[in-house]
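Researcher: Please translate sequence to structure tokens.
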Amino acid sequence: MRYASAILGSLLAISVPALALAHGFGQRIDLPVPLYLYLFGGGAIVALSFILLGLSSGRLSEALHAYPRFDLMRLRWFRALSSRVLLLPLKVVFVVILLSAIASGLWGNQNPAFNMLPTVVWIFFAIGVTFASALLGNIWSVVNPFKALYEWTGILLREAGFTRKQNVLPAALGVWPAVALFFAFRWIENVSLMSSDPRPLAMFVGIYALITFGGMAMFGKEEWLRRGDPFSVFFAFLSRFSVTDARDGTIYLRPPAVGLIHQKASFSEMGFILLMLSSVAADGMLTTPAFQNIFSSLIGYGLPWFFVGTAGLAFLFAAFLAVYYGFSFLTKVISRDASSTMEFARRFIHSLLPIAVAYEIAHYVSILVIEGQRALYLISDPFGRGWNIFGTADYEISYTILNLKILWNVQVALIVVGHVIAVVIAHAIAERFFKDRQKAFLSQYPMLALMIFYSCLSLWIMAQPIIAIE
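Model: Translation complete:
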């Protein structure tokens, strides 16, 4: 019975979501040097960047505040691309993709590999839009098909003379509704055993649509999207790292990450950012041998997977909250500043977003490249009915398209660069917060320790599919 429970627990832990097969690599390779050297080297680079910041002259925050930016609306081709004439067909395309994917989930082939819904949700939405938001800007605010459907429905209702008084979303709620719904999304991704099953997934999308339409109807479209919708909040946070900045009715091109410096988060926004970090870490951490053994033991005692998986996801969120708050307290103690620990936590939370961006890209890039190939045959047969609309239905996924050793080194570089950027952003925030360069530098020792800890943890999680015993 013990061995059966262990096998069951391991299978549960490694099969969610089934579509993503193996996060990161999917097979074992030999690292050119031991893992601890990667951990030491990554931590050393982060520490070196901190030392160089301390030796540099001038106020970093002032230099980053006066960053160069270029008004993209001055370019004729960009104005054409962003005009309503082109944006409307783009919105129609995304609405058609959404409705087709839901229809495929309900009535198409129920094998996830031959149904377009899992690929649309987990590959092109959860990964593709995330990458685009972090690197290019908040494209979701433009192409959001749920928003478009609500706007078009609203036009029809107003034409019919139907109006409804909207309520006020209490300010005290902050973005906690979005936090709860984003946790639910990550639960579906990491815990639910039906995350890639087309029909249940279509039901999940339908429930989200009802919540979204209801929230916009009750509290107003913009207010709900700004504070209640998990994905609008998620992509808005990621876009602060991107190279574009939409303000004053125009769009500017800017250096990456500078949009994080002058942001101050509320407590609920701090919680959302930490949930971003903990939940994407959970996607890799919960499948490590250490967690698999814990899950197997708990399931062996008769606890259901629903409870065990949910507890694991919640535990990591609570752990990230506790660790970050603890390091914020150390920052307060070392700086001898009169501000509260919560004030420190809220001030520096945006410096963790580069870590979230780097880990999102490093963790999911291989899945996007490998599993994204499914679109080539699904576009010809979206319902799995044997069609061949565009002549690509016989395409076979190439699992050797990525060199795993090169991919590992790229992932290491992404993790380290992300943490170095986080150190720079934290230092710039400290300079502006304390107004005293020496005090700002001293205050960052706890944050440096936190960045090194996160970088080593990220590299360890990324390496587990490589070094795990077969």
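Researcher: Any highlights?
Model: The CA atoms of residues 73 and 295 lie 53 Å apart.
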